[in-house]
Amino acid sequence: IQNMVAKTKILIIGASGLLGSKLYEKLSENYKVVGTYSTNKQEGLYFYDITNKDVTIFQETKPDVEYTLQE
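The structure assignment produced for this chain is given below.
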């Protein structure tokens, strides 16, 4: 089970916000986590604007789980 957990890829839309950054930090301890930002640029996060409905981030990262915390 631990090997399966380590391979699980999680995408957090809005990982630069208050809640998203805490979730990103906590989940990164045990999972492969990819995060996005739209206004608060941060090192290691991908730019993503939820309003343009671009699906490229999903195609490139192929997440197993996705959290959307961006407004």
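Interim note for the steering committee: The longest strand covers residues 32-37. Residues 54 and 69 are 16 Å apart (CA to CA).
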